[in-house]
């Protein structure tokens, strides 16, 4: 663990761990637990799970007042890849994160600490996926690329159906009358079926799959606040999603289906069943995650009655550096994407995690 940097009365403190808990782990947990803008991706559980599964060291930039009390924090994973370069990412493999702070002055100090950490480590960029937008030297706003989708859950199934626009509602009604079944859980069988289904889905989209141990690490770290829901046809998994539960919100995070899923309307059943399952767990809100503007997933979520909310990210670049490109829709990767779709699944599952762990 590395520590350094003092700037009283607000002190940006830089910590790093590669599997071992931080010395002020309890303070981190307590601060994230009460901060109104904290997400699961700010939690120590998430950050330690990512480090355990991928080996990417997590550095924690914190601010403290003169009495030593935490007033801000920012977890940053040092993502390294021979293909995509390296960056400090807040947080790794997440769709959220960024700076948590008591006020804008503290947020500015934390941003300064993040840039200083990148410079000290020789890292060319810092990527923040949410939170206050720094405006100091080297920082740039990135907007117009992603949108988030979230809304309140209805009180029961009938009300939930009525909340879905008419055309999509008809698709849901049809699959509710089909013979497809739904299972939920966290055991080895659910994990195996989820990974096979998800890996098939992303291979068919032309992107490498994340390591299986990433999903296992997150499930183990979050306990009852994470689980898997799988749609089955005669016992065979056809669609599956791993979800997080955070402060009354369900977040379907890693989901996909096999080639037959669309014909069977398995995704329609999966998300409607997840709404029902989340209500039973006491959730009142459904966070459909982010999608790139203008893509199929963006339109799909709108079809469910979710209104897109623009997401603004921030990036710090060292002088003379350019942003790393990890967008599979980029023209740079078009040939690789088309070739990946043709790989046998066994090959994609063996090679994919070696590549995907560098996406962060």
Automatic annotation (TrEMBL):
Transmembrane segments: none annotated. This is FemAB. Pfam families: Acetyltransf_6. SUPFAM superfamilies: Acyl-CoA N-acyltransferases (Nat). Residues 169-302 form the BioF2-like acetyltransferase domain. InterPro entries: Acyl_CoA_acyltransferase, BioF2-like_GNAT_dom, PEP-CTERM_FemAB-rel, PG_Glycine_Bridge_Synth.
């Amino acid at each position: 663990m590395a520590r350094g940097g003092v700037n009283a009365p607000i002190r940006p403190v830089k910590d790093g761990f590669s599997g071992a808990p931080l010395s002020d782990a309890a303070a981190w947990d307590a601060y994230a637990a009460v901060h109104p803008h904290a997400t699961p991706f700010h939690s120590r559980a998430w950050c330690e799970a990512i480090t355990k599964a991928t080996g990417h060291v997590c550095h924690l930039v914190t601010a403290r007042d003169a009495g030593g009390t935490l007033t801000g924090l920012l977890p940053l994973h040092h993502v390294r890849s021979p293909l995509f370069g390296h960056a400090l990412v807040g947080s790794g493999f997440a769709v959220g994160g960024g700076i948590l702070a008591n006020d804008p002055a503290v947020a500015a100090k934390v941003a300064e600490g993040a840039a200083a950490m990148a410079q000290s480590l020789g890292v060319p960029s810092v990527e923040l996926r949410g939170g206050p937008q720094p405006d100091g030297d080297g920082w740039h706003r990135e907007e117009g690329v992603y949108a988030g989708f979230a809304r309140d859950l209805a009180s029961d199934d009938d009300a939930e159906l009525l909340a879905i626009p008419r055309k999509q509602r008809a698709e849901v009604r049809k699959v509710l009358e089909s013979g497809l079944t739904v299972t939920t859980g966290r055991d080895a069988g659910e994990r195996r079926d989820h990974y096979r289904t998800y890996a098939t889905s992303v291979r068919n989209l032309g992107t490498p799959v994340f390591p299986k141990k990433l999903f296992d690490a997150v499930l183990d770290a979050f306990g009852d606040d994470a689980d898997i829901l799988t749609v089955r046809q005669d016992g065979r998994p056809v669609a599956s999603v791993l979800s997080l539960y955070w402060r009354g919100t369900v977040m379907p995070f890693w989901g996909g289906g096999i080639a037959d899923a669309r014909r069977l309307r398995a995704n329609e059943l999966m998300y409607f069943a997840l709404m029902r399952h989340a209500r039973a767990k006491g959730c009142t809100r459904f966070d459909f995650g982010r999608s790139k503007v203008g893509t199929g997933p963006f339109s799909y979520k709108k079809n469910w009655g979710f209104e897109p909310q623009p997401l603004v990210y921030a990036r710090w670049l060292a002088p003379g550096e350019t942003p790393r490109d990890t967008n599979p829709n980029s023209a740079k990767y078009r040939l690789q994407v088309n070739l990946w779709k043709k790989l046998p699944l066994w090959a994609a599952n063996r090679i994919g995690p070696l590549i995907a762990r560098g996406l962060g």
